[in-house]
Specification:
The protein has 112 residues and is mainly alpha-helical. 69% of the residues lie in helices and 0% in strands. It contains seven helices and no strands. α3 runs antiparallel to α4. It is globular and about 40 Å long. The relative contact order is 0.10.
């Protein structure tokens, strides 16, 4: 989704920078967004407070609220898909193989 939206905006994104956690995403405010997303995923309240402040300092409060809404939406979509037993169709997985490899998604385990 991130690579698609960035391409629509006329940019490119290096998903390996996102996966490695080094913030080298070629995305405006990439380091702050990565810090924020990581804190959300790790459910670390102290890190989240620090990441919110860093994101607001780099952008503004409305930008941070939008980022929080995106993170919440992804959490909701994941829970919805899990609760219905939905699985990604094979042809979609094949089409996204390079992104899956770049992000290291195949090595991730569920929190379930």
């Amino acid at each position: 989704m991130l690579s698609w939206s960035n391409a629509k905006a006329g940019g490119e994104i290096d998903l390996t920078g996102v996966a490695s956690g080094n913030g080298a995403t070629e995305l405006d405010h990439g380091a702050e967004l990565l810090q924020f997303a990581t804190a959300c995923a790790e459910r670390d309240d102290a890190a989240l407070a620090e990441a919110r402040t860093a994101l607001i300092d780099a952008t503004d409060e409305a930008f941070m609220v939008d980022a929080a809404a995106v993170a919440a939406n992804f959490e909701m979509m994941t829970r919805l898909a899990d609760s219905t037993g939905a699985r990604m169709p094979g042809e979609v997985l094949e089409a996204r193989a390079s992104q899956i490899g770049a992000m290291g998604v195949a090595e991730l385990t569920s929190r379930r």
